[in-house]
């Protein structure tokens, strides 16, 4: 039996200082270049423990010479703490991973986006700045990682397939804007296990052209819950959405503004179908179950449109917990394109405020109920 030696490339051997002040981006770039060119076993780029590496905006480019490469993070990686570090370069990314097949990144180190100086700036001028951006990375594995304080989205999965995210912690202040934990767009076959996310926006969000997503054993603290959407919004106005086969199982929500949410832009087209939320538990959540098929930029001013994203075959099963709002189930669907095949199966939601009466609200929502449903269903149909 032959044993193939593993190639490892430590950033320290390429000049990384790790004092938290010197920009080590060049050393990281050189170490990655040799890792990507490695041919023995599974080449590994090593970020040693006990040091803090300041790294400016950097792209890890593929394809590599072998099908599987590793990045092992033991120390801390921090971003520049001022937007001026992005002057004259692309301000839509900090650490970008592009076109790398079979990439695995593992902890137990820390990635700190130091985004506080970005949070007061207008999103119109900086529409997105994720800490980690993965583009066209098939066979991606992210394990045992901790990512904090991203300028905006912490982890962006874009145009990827066969992705596994396992045992990840994401944290930013509850008032940090647009700091989605994980956002998935134009991707298929993404599995997320054992995620713990506390942030100021969506815990996990699903964008357009996404299918075959499994989210299992998730914790969302404050923030906006797990969102499918918003769907059907392009830079020039409403667009088409294609989202299907989304499964969320065993998720806990603490003090979030939403729980299981589906939101689609008014005037868009396409579909969101075959979606299931099962074994969810809510504690002091504002909107445990919510569909908004008339989402728009101005809250409270979203009028009916003649087109919309068709929402169908959505299952809510085994859902328990408490809510601080009177309307615990809010299904606001389009008159032109109603929500169909909605199933409420064993739902028991209680008021967090003693003595409060909970209600359901439905507009153009059609489906069935099964078992105990509390508060009572307002779906337009009969019980099974």
Automatic annotation (TrEMBL):
PANTHER family: PTHR31375
PROSITE patterns per the UniProt record, alphabetical: POLYGALACTURONASE
Locations listed in the record: Secreted, Cell wall
Similarity section: Belongs to the glycosyl hydrolase 28 family.
Species of origin: Protea cynaroides
InterPro entries: Glyco_hydro_28, PbH1, Pectin_lyas_fold, Pectin_lyase_fold/virulence
Catalysed transformations (reactions): (1,4-alpha-D-galacturonosyl)n+m + H2O = (1,4-alpha-D-galacturonosyl)n + (1,4-alpha-D-galacturonosyl)m
GO molecular function terms attached to this record: polygalacturonase activity
Pfam families (UniProt xref): Glyco_hydro_28
Catalytic residues identified in the record: 224
Keywords linked to the UniProt accession: Cell wall, Cell wall biogenesis/degradation, Glycosidase, Hydrolase, Repeat, Secreted, Signal
Domain of life (superkingdom): Eukaryota
Signal peptide: none
Chief location category: secreted
Matching SMART domains: PbH1
Gene3D superfamilies: Single-stranded right-handed beta-helix, Pectin lyase-like (2.160.20.10)
Enzyme Commission no: 3.2.1.15
GO BP, one annotated term: cell wall organization
Name recorded for this polypeptide: endo-polygalacturonase
């Amino acid at each position: 039996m032959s044993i193939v030696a593993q190639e490892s490339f430590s950033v320290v051997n390429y000049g990384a200082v790790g004092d938290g002040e010197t920009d080590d981006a060049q050393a990281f770039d050189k170490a990655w270049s040799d890792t990507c060119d490695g041919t023995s076993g599974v080449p590994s780029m090593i970020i040693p423990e006990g040091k803090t590496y300041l790294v400016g905006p950097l792209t890890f480019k593929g394809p590599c010479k072998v099908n599987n490469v590793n990045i092992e993070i033991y120390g801390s990686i921090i971003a520049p703490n001022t937007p001026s570090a992005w002057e004259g370069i692309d301000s839509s990314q900090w650490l970008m991973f592009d076109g790398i097949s079979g990439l695995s990144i593992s902890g137990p180190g820390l990635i700190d986006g130091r985004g506080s100086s970005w949070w007061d700036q207008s999103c119109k001028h900086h529409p997105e700045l994720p800490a980690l951006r993965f583009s066209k990375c098939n066979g991606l594995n992210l394990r045992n990682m901790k990512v904090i304080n991203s300028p905006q989205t912490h982890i962006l999965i874009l145009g990827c397939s066969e992705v596994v995210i396992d045992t990840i912690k994401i944290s930013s202040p509850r008032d940090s804007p647009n700091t989605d934990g994980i956002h998935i767009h134009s991707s298929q076959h993404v599995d997320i296990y054992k995620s713990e996310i506390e942030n100021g926006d969506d815990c996990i969000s699903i964008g357009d052209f996404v299918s075959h997503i499994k989210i299992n054993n998730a914790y969302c603290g404050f923030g906006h819950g797990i969102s499918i959407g918003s769907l059907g919004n392009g830079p020039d106005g409403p667009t088409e959405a294609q989202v299907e086969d989304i499964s969320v199982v065993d998720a806990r929500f603490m003090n979030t503004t939403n729980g299981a949410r589906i939101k689609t832009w008014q005037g868009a087209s396409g579909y969101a179908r075959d979606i299931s939320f099962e074994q969810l538990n809510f504690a002091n959540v504002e909107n445990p179950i919510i569909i908004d098929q008339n989402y728009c930029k101005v809250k409270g001013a979203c009028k009916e449109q003649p087109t919309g994203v068709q929402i169908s075959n959505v299952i809510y099963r085994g859902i328990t917990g408490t809510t601080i709002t009177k309307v615990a189930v809010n299904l606001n669907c389009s008159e032109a394109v109603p929500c169909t095949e909605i199933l409420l199966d064993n739902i028991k939601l209680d008021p967090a405020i003693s003595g409060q009466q909970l209600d359901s609200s439905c507009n153009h929502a059609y489906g069935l109920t099964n078992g105990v449903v509390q508060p009572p269903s307002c779906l337009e149909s009969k019980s099974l």
